[in-house]
Amino acid sequence: MYNFDVVKPTRIADAVKELSDSTESQPLGGGQTLIPTLKQRLASPDKLVSLSAIDEMQGVCKGDDGSICIGGATNHATVAAEAGDYPALAATAAHIGDPAVRNRGTIGGSLANNDPSACYPAAALASGATIKTNTREIAADDYFQGMFATALDEGEIITEVRFPVPERANYQKFLQPASRFALVGVFVAKYADGVRVAITGASNDGVFRWTEAEAALSSNFSAAALDGLSLPDGDMISDLHGTGEYRAHLCAVMTKRAVAAAA
Amino acid sequence: MPKDGGIGASSKRREDVRFLTGAGNYTDDINIRGQAYVHFLRSDIAHGTIKSIDTGAAAAMPGVVRIFTGSDFEGVGGMPCGWQVTDKHGQPMQEPAHPILAQGKVRHVGEPVAAVVADTLEQARDAAEAIALDIDELPAVVDMKAALADGSTKVHDDLNDNLCYDWGFVEENKDAVNKAFENAAHVTSLELVNNRLVANPMEPRVALGDYARGTDDSTLYTTSQNPHVIRLLMGAFVLGIPEHKLRVVAPDVGGGFGTKIFHYQEEAFCTFAAKACNRPVKWTSSRSEAFISDAHGRDHVTKIELALDADNNFTALRTETHANMGAYLSTFAPSIPTWLHGTLMAGNYKTPLIYVNVKAVFTNTVPVDAYRGAGRPEATFQLERVVDKAARELGVDPIALRRQNFITEFPYATPVAVEYDTGDYHGTMDKLEEMGDFAGFAARRAESEKNGKLRGLGVNCYIEACGIAPSNLVGQLGARAGLYESATVRVNATGGLVVMTGSHSHGQGHETSFAQVVAEMIGIDENMVEIVHGDTANTPMGMGTYGSRSIAVGGSAMVRATEKIINKAKKIASHLLEASEADIELKDGAFSVAGTDKSVAWGDVTLAAYVPHNYPLEDIEPGLEETAFYDPANFTYPSGAYACEVEVDPDTGKVTIERFAAADDFGNIINPMIVTGQVHGGIAQGIGQALLENCAYDENGQLLSASYMDYAMPRADDLPMFDVDHSSQTPCTHNPLGVKGCGEAGAIGSPPAVVNAVVDALQSAGKDVMHVDMPLSPDRVWAAMQ
Ligand SMILES: Cc1cc2nc3c(=O)[nH]c(=O)nc-3n(C[C@H](O)[C@H](O)[C@H](O)COP(=O)(O)OP(=O)(O)OC[C@H]3O[C@@H](n4cnc5c(N)ncnc54)[C@H](O)[C@@H]3O)c2cc1C
User: Which of B341, B378, B335, B371 is nearest to B481 (CA)?
Assistant: First the structure.
């Protein structure tokens, strides 16, 4: 690690100010991604602004419209335990990493990082979630912009994420054997006005919606509705753990399984 | 009734008290006043010419003590290789120089190029970033067959080519073997890869050099499986320090699995730098460094052919293996694909004619050396895969085909130079059939199919050579070391004993099981026996722990030394009891005169030895301390039969292991619980190799699986409950305990069982799949099914 300062504000406004004081500063969520990066000397912020002492960014609650609101600094274990009104979301959180990761890693950190194999991006995109920051509200459809790329501006903090609760939903995660991130993860959510399918782990462009599957499932929410549908493998990630062809195949398999499990 | 102490008792591991409560003393726990830290600048290029290294700016950075580069080590010995293999033409292998820090060229990603010694580790790292290193990149040699092609780039410019050796074994048998193939009724052939692995002991390597200016003594604290070997190699061949001026300490070591046998540059560096800087110098490997600097394991590519007659008897076996050496020869690298692999190719079978060809190849990758099993897993894997394939091609039961070809008479001289002393291969197979409930397999398969899964059953046998090794024999085979073991037994005045063993324990539980043996021999409580190991200053010269040799060789030395103690103690007892020495019996910790009720306690005899007031001083010396060196007459030959049942998800290719049974014959058993634990660990690693672990390089020599994000270690939930049995026991005939060794069996015996099972599962779905290369990751299994 290189040297840096750490501050631990207790209010969002103070955190924003700390971040704007220096262009080399960076928010610190649970540190599960950022700290290993620092240890490898791949980043050199001069100041880390820890978000963990900001009460307004903690916890799970229910919004007036029935949606689940999760504070941006809420860790995965808390979501797993307290988002019971959205069982598929709680289950997704419950299977991120290991207990140590779940007790530190946060939803804000995960969505800000937007790892192409992470789980929350699929949940947020499939749920049509709203990502609330210190300055604005961003629809999930506008938020994810490719591998590790998001709509966030420099110094912008995710303060809350709001998930409309679907009628049925399920997340199927096929584990990458080493990291146990998603080799392919599919989140299917059925709302009154249609079905959304978001896939993580597979594409070179990061999390994406499988619109053909959504259309098929919106008229017939059953695994059979997906028969014959497949994704092109051209844009799929091809690496040590699977070719693009294999990932494209897994997308179809996992989508069917998610529908079957949600139905 | 299970015993509650001594040989055969499942005594709890006494060392676990400190290991499990954070009270261990590992190398990194040792800190010496004034200690400086070294950070190695390692090449991130696989192959290149060093044009310049400018350390000027770095040397001026805060805290920097001194920066070393290759030029500081001109005239200092390079890393020695401990085994010289002779090729099939009678010529010695090609042996490149192996510098402590790169000289002129870098040859693998991770090779140390410069070393920064500073007051703190962070300062050393900061300064390392300020070193201007200019490397002219050369094409990387990665693929072994391409490395041997005409015109390939050479890893070492001063060698003829990238071939370390071309070994034929037994060369004189070659024509007869070829002839047998011409006459065969059936030939089964198979090409396969034994995947490259990273050992990944829980504790990364650490080295701490210390130098006493007043006495000119050097001490190295290091994470080693064999401190005496390091002292000899480093002292005599690298740094020129005589043994009496060099102490090597390997305190608690958190797992080795082979990769901590070898002498590494970092050890020599820290010892050298401690003197050069007149400060203790410490290096602690990061996990990332371990991936690119610990010697890797396996990495064989093999073509194996099995010839059978019309009655399905094996008539001949022929193999051609390419074995990756990496960029340099690690300490024992040349011996692994040859003498620890070729000699095992008979397996459990009476195949009369065998020819093994091994081409060892230099590539721009991390050096490859022994990893749990070392050569024997590679032999077992190819043999048990080809036998399985033969059974499938011939449409015969794979167990019956094996049984038909089993060796049944012992001793048995194989056509590959070794003689098995004992074994009962039908016995372990009988046991396995019982444990595996093969009769119930069809029903279990039907049940799996109902759930949309394919189920497969894989069985295999193994034989291994442990208790390494008769020194005169290995000397003829090219070893530059003896392979005896030593023990000093020191009895204290009040009757307690300290055994100083040349073996080293780094997870095996020697402190418990060795004490059980001595306690049993004398008839005293185990807690009266302390086992000391790991420090050249207080243990006799010994060769350390690897090759499942500790109980068979080190234990034998300890038995011999204890026998000497008992003999002397009997003399003392006969004096105290005023009886003839021939009439003295030792039982339950007391000496008695046969046929009388006269006796004297162990403690009275030991006290007399050190307070010799009433003592036969004219006949024997006071004191009770004896040393023995034991050189084994032969290897030991543990064997067994393993069965694995898998489910394959046909939609994803994911394999799950549903059942795993292991029936082993380790000869006599000292501590069944520890043996079971060793087998469990071995199977976990074997399944890791079979399903998960894959050390992969890209064509530029960059390590693709360089962290746990991409290198998949087996986790508890990847494994089923193991059903382990070692009740089949044919004791070794040539060591005093009748023991064979159990440390590697699990890792040797399990990979073929897993692959055989997966092939069986795929075949059950009508897939024409005869082989899938390890690791059988979901994508590979799925691809094989398409
Ligand atoms: C062993 C291991 C296994 C894992 N397995 C999985 C898995 O299976 N699935 C999965 O999805 N993830 C997995 N993760 C990642 C884990 O979920 C991380 O917690 C997450 O990606 C980052 O969250 P964090 O709170 O730790 O963020 P940090 O590491 O603190 O920060 C990550 C990035 O986000 C920024 N940031 C943090 N919080 C905010 C915020 N509120 N607003 C704006 N920017 C912010 C930081 O500046 C930094 O750039 C794993 C991690 C580990 C170490």
Answer: B335
Indicate if the pLDDT at residue A1 is higher than 80.
yes
- Looking at residue B1, its pLDDT comes to 57
Q: Decide if B433 contacts B399 (C-beta within 8 A).
A: yes
Contact criterion met (CB < 8 Å) for B711 and A178: yes
- What angle (nearest 5°) sits at the alpha carbon of residue B743, between those of residues B739 and B744? 115
Reported as a pLDDT band with limits 50, 70 and 90, residue A23 is: confident
| Positive or negative: CA dihedral B329, B331, B334, B340 | negative
- For residue B716, the SS3 value is helix
CA B369 – CA B299 distance, rounded (Å): 10
Q: Name the helix (H) or strand (E) containing B672.
A: helix B672-687
CA distances to A57, A118, B39, B113, B117 from B62, in Å: 41, 40, 14, 21, 11
Per-residue pLDDT band at B199 (split at 50, 70, 90): very high
Q: Write out the E strands in B392-484.
A: 412-413, 419-420, 454-463
Distance (Å) from the alpha carbon of B692 to chain A's nearest alpha carbon: 7
Number of neighbouring beta carbons within 10 Å of residue B611: 11
- Do A41 and B125 count as a contact with CB atoms less than 8 A apart? yes
Residue holding tokens 């600097």?
Answer: B293
DSSP string, B368-389: EE--TTTTHHHHHHHHHHHHHH
Separation of CA A236 and ligand 1 centre (Å):
23
- pLDDT in the model for residue B127: 98
CA A85 to chain centre: 18
- pLDDT by residue (tens digit) across B134-175? 999 999 999 999 999 999 999 999 999 999 999 999 999 999
Domain with residue A241: its CATH number is: 3.30.390.50
Nearest chain A Cα to B651, which residue?
A253
Q: Name the fold adopted by B296-469+634-785.
A: Aldehyde Oxidoreductase; domain 4 (3.30.365)
Rounded to the nearest 5°, which phi and psi values hold at B701? 80, 15
Q: What is the mean pLDDT of residues B307-313?
A: 98
10 Å Cβ neighbour count for A222? 13
Is-contact A82 A71, C-beta < 8 A? Answer: no
- Residues on chain B bordering chain A, Cβ-to-Cβ distance under 8 angstroms: 122, 125-126, 129, 288, 651-654, 691-692, 694, 696, 704-705, 708-713, 777-779, 782-783
Does pLDDT of A192 surpass 80? yes
Instruction: Look at chain A and report how many structural domains it folds into.
Output: 3
Question: Where in the sequence is the domain holding A42, given as residue range(s)?
Answer: 5-50
Handedness of CA A99, A101, A107, A110 (dihedral sign): negative
The superfamily in CATH containing domain B27-138+202-255+260-293 is Aldehyde oxidase/xanthine dehydrogenase, a/b hammerhead (3.90.1170.50)
Q: ipTM of this complex > 0.90?
A: yes
Mutate to test the pocket of ligand 1, among A113, A137, A200 (most ligand atoms within 8 A of CB): A113
- Indicate the CATH number for domain B484-630: 3.30.365.10
Q: Say if CB B589 and CB B601 are below 8 A apart.
A: yes
Cα of A105 to ligand 1 centre, how many Å?
Answer: 5
Complete DSSP assignment for B122-138? HHHHHHHHT-EEEEEE-
Question: Do A140 and A126 belong to one domain?
Answer: yes
Mean residue pLDDT across chain B: 97
* Pair of tokens at residue B559: 């038995």
- Span B277-283, average pLDDT: 98
Degrees, nearest 5: CA angle B777-B782-B786: 150
pLDDT in tens, B647-665: 999 999 999 999 999 999 9
Start-to-end CA distance of chain B, whole Å, equals 55
Q: What are the tokens at A199?
A: 């896939």
